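Intended use. Records such as the Hemolymph juvenile hormone binding protein entry shown here are meant for training and evaluating sequence-to-structure methods. They are not intended to support clinical decisions.
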Amino acid sequence: MRVVVILISICKIAHASIFPADQEKCQYGDSKCIIRVANNVISKASQGYPELGLPVFDPLKLRSLDIEQGGNSPVNLKIHLRNFELIGLSNTKFISIQGFNKDYDNARMELKFNIPSWQIFGPYKIDGRVLILPVAGNGIANLTSYNNEITMKLLTKKVIKQGKEYMQIEKSRLVYVTDRVAFDFTNLFNGNKLLSETTNRFFNENWKQIHEEIKPKLYEAIASIYESLINKVFAAIPYDDMFIQGGSA
């Protein structure tokens, strides 16, 4: 299985900025305060927050996402999305944050958050089979995931730029639980209405098995998106400038 995701909106490295004066600062490792600030940033940032290096991220415009699921799997698909949108990230709500201590080099952190729904929408091409059903088509895809509980584990490192110390994510891993995924692919089988309706119905009736097969690499792609957004913030402002100095470690 292979996945490639290329981001349009968040590919540039941010220049050094000053932490916004109207944002609360926390003590190092103060989980309650950091959760409060993170949720406040999300509430302000859907249309961009340049002071923190964040682009417009709802919708987040993405260049491509390729998922290839093959081998002996009952789901054997090649899905290619181009110039599509990821919608719903502005509804992210953090419920637990561990880490962000004074020592952040080679440190482990954990974020837990909820997204009521997110949606992938845009041009697609698909080829392969699901269980015994052959699948082929190209058109507009609409994939919606409902009530998403996400845990993201991070390994961070210290990066020095122009004499300033910044935090960046070295590795990340995402654990994901969802209540349901809905699939809608237009123009399957060259627009054959009967086959398109039958195939979409099959996808939605068997969503759990399909989701189980494609989720490792789909969620790897989603993790890379969150990692890029977080890195944008921490590449914009030196780490220590985000916290109250003299606070706890």
